[in-house]
């Protein structure tokens, strides 16, 4: 059987390794390991397996497969097909993908009559052997300290020759992607153009899996993420198709980059329709989304789905844990399943800990600063910056319970070596916040359900209405102006956008309250870097470098921020030293006692 020599309707183009790696990124490793014609190695290996290969002048033997992950594509080209048909794929990359799929369809790798297996060898020698039953290849990867094994059995053959027994070998998946299906897809894309985008299908995939909306959109477009994307990650055309902001799509890329390489190929392997023309029919992409959701559930299980506005706010936190996984941690604290590959990112990461699957396992078995940093960014955010009734805010008290169980386990007599370093691992400020009663009072505010649904603790009218009334009466202000004054006195980031969200104010209502404060002389108008507002307390200003917020020097000791010796720069800030009703009252007490911010 010779599939490669079948007549090709188009003259094959030559694509550089750069072109190929850009088009195949996230699904097939290619960069730096293929020659100037990046498809030539695959065609050559295919001919060698078939028995039709003849050496070029100067060649004595065929080279082993390139070091990319293309061998894992055998039986699983569905992701590349999905990407080739997606509207969001850049035109120049679509051409590479179509040529690749057409080339692949004419090799033994797409022919179900061949059997392929992948494995690993104990030795360190590269080799290529072939007989009448098949061929096998060994590829030593010095940097990875391993030797890959690739085996092809010809139609009718029983076993390929091998110079040594592999440590393990597994059969390659066989499913969607026959030569007929691949060539049919290529023909349809070239005749009809890419498939129309269906945002509702992406939303359905998000809700069914717990993926963020942007991540679900990327998956449905065959763009499953990788840590090696060239910049820009997506161009203007791609972003316009999806309808998401740059930061949201980058957060989605980080979310998907937690997938193992094998999982990025396995997830879309069987989601394409048996007849590719179904993609262009009404509901075609929605049916792909349904199959993708089923594949995701089988591989990873269904995860809770965060409200869209909450996920967007989590992205703004800029923690090293992807926003979606931070949300999962609060939505289902008891399980708190880590994303695949997460434990490979924390440090230290001894190999014996790679089986750990939850945030609490990682926190309990060794220091995981990524998890701790995310927790201590997420807890105050959930309390002060999310509305009552938000499921992530509601999950914060249970998150604290699990965190304390882990710390108690680490500090038990049976684990004496850890007892002296817990405070150091967390930091003294975090430790004090957890143990001095502050955390308990903050969590009690959440569980008390004193706030009406949709209201924010950062709105003093909601959390301390009597205090607002006192401020208004004392300073002869309206309720709105009194509330805004308290927010400026205390909150670290009372930007115009935040204030309007917390207070449910229109710009006009906000402007009226601001004008009243300016007229009273309690605030000044100005423009300052990274402030996001035009109203400020009188007096010195402390600048800050990201991610710390700049603020009026007056409020820094009140909220636990640390300033430089000359009080001109914020050097540290993370956790408020009390509940917001307590701190609003304390700020007002200082003002009433004569310690008002002054120019």
Keywords:
single chain, five-stranded antiparallel beta sheet, alpha+beta, two-stranded antiparallel ribbon, 11 strands, 599 residues, elongated, 3 domains, 45% helix, 27 helices
Summarize the model shown.
With 599 residues, the chain is an alpha+beta fold.
SSE topology sketch:
Blueprint: H1 17-24, H2 40-50, H3 78-85, H4 91-105, E1 115-121, E2 127-131, E3 134-141, E4 146-153, E5 168-171, H5 179-192, H6 199-209, H7 213-220, H8 236-242, H9 246-256, H10 261-266, H11 284-300, H12 308-317, H13 323-331, H14 359-365, H15 369-385, H16 391-410, H17 416-419, H18 422-426, H19 428-435, H20 438-447, H21 460-463, H22 465-475, H23 479-490, H24 496-503, H25 507-520, E6 524-525, E7 535-536, E8 541-542, E9 551-552, H26 556-559, E10 562-563, E11 570-572, H27 580-592
Antiparallel strand pairs: 1-4, 1-5, 2-3, 3-4, 6-7, 8-9, 10-11
Structure, explained:
The strands form 4 sheets. A 5-stranded antiparallel sheet has the order 2-3-4-1-5, with helices on one face. Residues 1-9, 343-356 and 413-422 have low confidence and may be disordered. The protein has 3 domains: 1-8 and 15-112 and 174-302, no CATH class; 308-447, no CATH class; 460-592, no CATH class. With 599 residues, the chain is of the alpha+beta class. Helix 6 (199-209) packs across helix 7 and helix 14 runs parallel beside helix 16 (391-410). Helix content is 45%, strand content 8%. The chain contains 27 helices and 11 strands.
